[in-house]
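Data deposition worksheet. Section B asks for the primary sequence of the deposited chain exactly as it was used as input, without tags or linkers unless they were present during the calculation. Section C holds the resulting structure in token form. Section D is free text for depositor observations; keep each observation to a single sentence. Incomplete worksheets are returned to the depositor.
Section A, Depositor: J.P.
Section B:
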Amino acid sequence: MNLKGKILPLDRSNIDTDQIIPARHLTGITKKGYGVHLLEDAPDTPINNPEFKDAIILLTRENFGCGSSREHAVWAIMDRGFKAVIAISFARIFEENCYNNGLVPIKLKEEQINKLLNLNECEIDVINQKVIIQNGEEFDFELDPLKKEFILKGGFLKFMNEKIPKIKEWEKSQI
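Section C:
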């Protein structure tokens, strides 16, 4: 699985889930419709700049997704078309929600983030766990092996859905 595309730079730390998707918009019962409100309460972001309209990679600094535990934050990011978030660190629950929904959470070092902040796009090789920049330089990142499978299948529920036939087959063999 390779992702190649524009980067939306958010050169700041501690962007919390209330800034990612304000609580006043958490009225729906599906995963769709939240993207229009993405980063609405985060001041001075380039989210609505036409230059970044087709960005698929969200780039930020440390502690992204802190604050309230809400899966809607990941839903809003994905609904806006993002496929990956690159940061120095993530709040633990936000990172789990990324895996569970198929959004790629990539942790890089500060100097690597600084290089990416000066670029318009990059490529992410999820299988080999590398971020590749325009000059061919590569940044390795780690993904939990099992949770990486969630991402490759499109999220935890899709991953588990593929297991159901084997589970049913096993159940029959136990009777």
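Section D:
The chain has one domain: 2-173.
The chain is about 30% helix and 15% strand.
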